[in-house]
Amino acid sequence: ARGEGPAASPTRMLARTSRGMLRSAHVPWRHARGDALPNVEVNAASWARATARRLSTASPRPVLQSARVTDVAAPQDLKGKAALQEEGSVLLTERELQYRALQPPKGGVEADLRGLMASSDEPLSHTAADAGKIFSLERSSAFASLFFHTGLCGKGRQEQAAKTAAALVRPEVLELRDELLWRAARPADAQHSLRDSSGLVLVGERGHGKSWALNYAAAACEAAGWLVVLAPWAADWTMGVGARSAQEANEAYRVGDSDYFKAVPPELAGSDLYESPDASALLLQSVYFSQRGKLERITIKGEERRKAYAHLAAGREPTLADMLLPSVRGEGDAFTDFPVPLRPVHDLLQELKLVTEMPVLVAVDGWQLWGEMATSRNWRSPAP
């Protein structure tokens, strides 16, 4: 996803569509575009309150949905009665996510929104008839299995809004979803298949919903059984994890610097590329926790990499789960001290190109930021 142009008015985000947002270098879109939205006139503030109420209190039960997830233990888990599992130098725990109904606001506006609601909260189930209608991404199956670990694409308030607010099903995101599924259904050696495609780029002015389109596509592919690797914000590697300004401190270093990296793959030796250990460590952990079941079914294809990780497989064929496990456990100074091993993130990216067990989606928000200069500098020196 790439942002261009002036910022859009946030008050118009739910009601607008972004024509021309998708661009493919291979084939034209095969689906008719319909930009019509329901003809509803209602005060914006009243509509927003009523929408939240309709989404949150539709069920009389106190809990709408729950799911169990595995996560890194937090300080409060150590004080409580949570069951902890030790993995190397990391403690893991299981959490139960619960989505509770909100209490009706006092003086709230009653509105019949049945005509505005999509047929499902699952992006994979939406059809053309759902275009222009709203749903809740938070109640989709992908929220607990994927986004809980990776975060949502988008910056700050955008991410929070995507998590909690009603979302619009737009014709463009349906086209993107169908394009990906269509390519995955073609034979691997066929033209326009996933293997034949270098990738799809979402373009458009800032505020047109490119980050939201990535979230929607990732949720659909996750529900379809794809291996989904999500980098919610590319600037984590160039400006620092969570940073929004080049003035904030960052720790990105040249991959050829032996003071910061070890286990450097031969093809990267002497490279002038930069790497942010913090951002890559978070990526490896989020991929492992969100995709563990799939990673355990994908064997390592590269001969040299298969030998390098064979000792972790206990006599069986090593998998991508074996490859990431040391980074999750914090073994070999994976994210605790310098120099850190560079192989895990590089090997994962190389192996993703060779996966045959299932389709793979690598989604990066703001990918063009990777081409910018890292904001790190040597300690007490203006030199980058």
A few lines on this structure:
The protein is α/β, with parallel strands linked by helices and 384 residues long. The protein contains ten helices and 14 strands. A hairpin with a 2-residue loop joins strand 4 (84-87) and strand 5.
Characterization of the model:
It is a single chain. It contains ten helices and 14 strands. The chain is globular and about 65 Å long. A hairpin with a 2-residue loop joins strand 4 and strand 5 (90-100). Helix content is 29%, strand content 15%. By secondary structure, the chain is an alpha/beta fold. It has a three-stranded mixed beta sheet, with no helix packed on it. Strands 3-5-4 form a three-stranded antiparallel beta sheet, with helices on one face. Residues 1-63 have low confidence and may be disordered.
Shape descriptor reads globular
Average pLDDT number? 76
Number of helices: 10
List the strand order in the largest sheet.
1-8-2
Rg, please? 22 Å
Helicity range: 25-40%
First and last CA, distance = 27 Å
Helices and strands, in order, run as EEHEHEEEHHEHEHEEEEHHHEHE
Largest sheet, described in full? 3 strands, mixed
